[in-house]
Amino acid sequence: MGKGSIIFLNGVTSSGKTSIVDAIQSRSEKFFYVVANDLFEQMIGDKYLQEDYWKYLSEAIWMMYHTARLFSDLGKNVLIDGILVERPELKPHYDTVREIFAGYPFDIVEVFCPLEVCRQRNRERHDRTEDQSDWQSQLMADNIHYSCSVDTSLFSPNECAEIIIKALATGS
């Protein structure tokens, strides 16, 4: 059995990653399981998140990556809805992710959206701070090698999904 594809959608909060995940799942001929920072954060009790948010979230994120790798080992395709931030608890985040997925069919997709649009989306959602995308963008890993990039301020989630599916199918 071959390894399943792993596609990491990397972007700040409200950039459109989850909407693209939904669109890929409905448009792609391949079936994808989804692992996401938010889902793994929910596995941690509020007490621990309040006690040391980054310590516990970082542990959950590493487990999320290993979960994605396990799915791939079982021949299952995986979408990762996440963000490569370089916090002390995660450094060197990007390099470690590359090591974890070395030898796997692994692609990182940049999900971009101008910060002013993300701020507006954050205000509309009411479940995050308006500036959350701003401070995440300042923590984002540098020099990431992306397989492709989409701008959710220019394209709908379905259009972004189509761009990603085509780019990864052709390797461009």
Fold and architecture overview:
With 172 residues, the protein is α/β, with parallel strands linked by helices. Helices cover 49% and strands 16% of the residues. The chain is built from seven helices and five strands; from the N terminus they run βαβααβαβααβα. A five-stranded parallel β-sheet has the order 2-3-1-4-5, with helices on both faces. The longest helix has 28 residues, at 46-73.
Q: What structural class is derived from the secondary structure elements?
A: alpha/beta
Mean pLDDT, all residues: 94
Tally of helical runs: 7
Order of helices and strands: EHEHHEHEHHEH
Question: How can the largest sheet be summarized?
Answer: 5 strands, parallel
Number of strands: 5
| Residue share in helix | 40-55%
- What's the N-to-C terminus distance? 26 Å
Radius of gyration: 16 Å
Trace the largest sheet across and list its strands: 2-3-1-4-5
Topology:
Layout: E1 6-10, H1 17-27, E2 32-36, H2 37-41, H3 46-73, E3 77-82, H4 93-100, E4 106-112, H5 115-125, H6 132-139, E5 148-151, H7 157-170
Parallel strand pairs: 1-3, 1-4, 2-3, 4-5
Helix pairs in contact: 1-7, 5-6
Highlighted features:
single chain, 16% strand, globular
Summarize the structure.
The protein has 172 residues and is α/β, with parallel strands linked by helices.
